[in-house]
Amino acid sequence: MRADEVPFPAARWRRALENGAASLFPGYFALVMATGVVSIACHFLGLRPVALVLVAVNWVAWPVLWALTVLRALRFRSALLRDLSDHQRAPGFFTIVAGTCVLGTQNVVVLGATTIGTVLWWLGLILWFAVMYGFFTAVTVRARKPSLARGINGAWLIAAVSTQSVVVLRGVIDVAEPPPAPIQFQVIAMFLIGCMLYLAIIPLIFYRLTFVPMQREDFSPPYWINMGAVAITALAGSVLVLRGEVWPLLTPLLPFLRGFTFFFWAVASWWIPFLFALMLWRYVWMRDRWVYEPAIWGMVFPLGMYTTSTLQFSRAMGYGFLEPVPRILVLVALLAWSLGMAGLLRRIVRALRSA
Fold it and tell me: Among residues 271, 280, 193, which one has the least CA distance to residue 228?
């Protein structure tokens, strides 16, 4: 069959895939992150049928996004390389690491698929080294750099999220038996590196929010990562505290881990009213219209992450009075995920029609 004889539907799908790869948002793996963490929250809170459906969704989304990413690297390499040194878009590449590790955690927690989780942990670890040092090297050596106001946003904190996602996945894999001592050492070190990244980046973002004038469109969904990054840090700390009796290297660090975990959970809690207030300012006071954008998953993920983080934090610290909080927030996270998915499906339909 000649190229000009390809049936119209097949040609439409091919053009849609090429267009999708060419314009692929680097942070689109946040879809996998959001779906995975909401699934885990549903599993813990007795909504197992929903959790299983979201596992299936992620096993469609993750390979599709990988296929689009590989196609982009092969066919649109210059655009991909341009994104890698872009201060606004490049942090999105960290979602590849976090999405891979959250998918692994989802499979271990919801399905008990430890082998799959272990494979994804090693893949996530390799990706972490590649993206972490590729990103920071690229933005450091870039000749022309944007101002702080134009270059920094909440997406930079996905560097911390990706680091802690590696910690969480290993923590749910080795529950009954400790991993080898070098892996225990590495996981603890990565937890501290994730803490360092958050504490280094958040002052710049806080300065941007409070001292640089913002237009309504400047407050975009990635700013929710301000809360999501610290929530996953609290989750990682809680998981390590729960492994304290099993992993020998953790035992002497438990008092420090409990205090540090409490600190990060408290900070995550502080962000939530502030972020909701900023949403009200943009969409109610300023009357901005809500439209779907790929970055919306950067808002869904923190809602699901805070739900799971609070649940595990309450169990690790023995604060049972906190458990009603995630039972309410899981419904908010599910609503946000549903709205995001509805917007994504509408965008896919429009892309197919215009291809």
Answer: 271
